[in-house]
Amino acid sequence: MNSLAHSLDSSGALIDLNHVQKSYDGKTLIIKDLNLSIAQGEFLTLLGASGSGKTTTLMMLAGFETPTRGEIRMMGKPIQNVPAHRRGMGMVFQNYALFPHMTVAENLAYPLKMRGLNRIEVQSKVKRAIEMVQLHDMQQRRPTELSGGQQQRVALARAMVFEPQVILMDEPLGALDKNLREHMQYEIKQLHRRLGVTVVYVTHDQGEALTMSDRVAVFHQGDIAQIGDPVSLYEHPENAYVATFIGENNVLRGSLVARHGHEVEIALDAGFEARGMGVTMPIGASKKVELLIRPENIRLSPINQNSYQATLADRVYLGDHLRIHLKLDNDDTLIVKTANDEAIKGLNNGQRIGFSWRPEDARVFAQG
Ligand SMILES: Nc1ncnc2c1ncn2[C@@H]1O[C@H](COP(=O)(O)OP(=O)(O)O)[C@@H](O)[C@H]1O
Ligand SMILES: [Mg+2]
């Protein structure tokens, strides 16, 4: 389906957003200063909490909303004045938006008829789209006669039937239960691989974003907090927001004591000194810092001179791992994730336990 000869602009991007701002009321900026290049064929996910501006961004790409300031280019040309149906973008929403009075085949034919294709072309493209999402037996059914997952597959096929260059998806799996959602994630990913189409995908589910995407843009209050591939977002978060939004992190507050290159020494409010990496911390930044350490990176041990100390507060069995709650001396809780109960065997809640982490696993940021 990616057979159109696409040319790229000098930056190599298919779509560029340059200093895009959006305000609905002329006062509040919902999108503050968005700069984003979308490469041809990539699977880019906009990930963020509700209200962070993901849908607004997608609507501006689709042509249903106009930027208040800034510019959107496609293949180097501004598209502000190109209407939605001429942008070559297919859209899939959470609530499918299928036509209830039309059969599956008619739903798929609709965007093609709208674009003035003849009967033969419509028939062959509908056939291909139906094959693509494997709904052969369902062609003559109406949406109400399909399951949620089947309806979503029709919506997907309908967005792709006119062979768009770009597919925009806004929380397309939000209404499905967990198993079906995971299955559809896999199907969408397979389709993307097979067709090489550019996908801009919106979700608030970080697991979904990490499993499906080539790159993820983490949205926070109308800005991109960080953009990168899943591994770098998880392993090298550039700020505390991303570190806590992607995956899980314990956040411990304290103040900066000393620097040794990228490694910093922190006096934690919990009453002990610890080390971590302060890579993104500017010299002379605030001395108030937070140290972030992932539950799986904390090691439990008998108390020794290299370990810190806390009180064992609770243990929760979760099948493939244990979550252990430690109470620090300032009453903060530290969550530890471990595959076995070796370290706490024979210990009762309320007893003291040692723990430690490798400085390279802890990240230190200025307090925001
Ligand atoms: N049509 C609209 N008119 C006014 N405010 C809107 C409109 N659409 C969205 N907003 C506001 O813009 C902010 C971002 O919304 P949205 O882009 O839908 O975020 P997300 O998709 O990340 O949840 C929210 O505060 C929302 O209330
Ligand atoms: Mg939204």
Automatic annotation (TrEMBL):
It comes from the Bacteria. The keyword Cell inner membrane does not apply. It is an enzyme of class 7 (translocase). It catalyses: ATP + H2O + polyamine-[polyamine-binding protein]Side 1 = ADP + phosphate + polyamineSide 2 + [polyamine-binding protein]Side 1. SMART domains: AAA (SM00382). The gene is potA. It holds the Pfam family TOBE_2. One of its GO terms (molecular function) is ATP binding. The complex is composed of two ATP-binding proteins (PotA), two transmembrane proteins (PotB and PotC) and a solute-binding protein (PotD). Part of the ABC transporter complex PotABCD involved in spermidine/putrescine import. Responsible for energy coupling to the transport system. Keywords: ATP-binding, Cell membrane, Membrane, Nucleotide-binding, Translocase, Transport. SUPFAM superfamilies: MOP-like (SSF50331), P-loop containing nucleoside triphosphate hydrolases (SSF52540). Signal peptide: none annotated. This is Spermidine/putrescine import ATP-binding protein PotA. Belongs to the ABC transporter superfamily. Spermidine/putrescine importer (TC 3.A.1.11.1) family. PROSITE patterns: ABC_TRANSPORTER_1 (PS00211), ABC_TRANSPORTER_2 (PS50893). Its EC number is 7.6.2.11. Residues 15-246 form the ABC transporter domain. It comes from Pseudomonas mandelii.
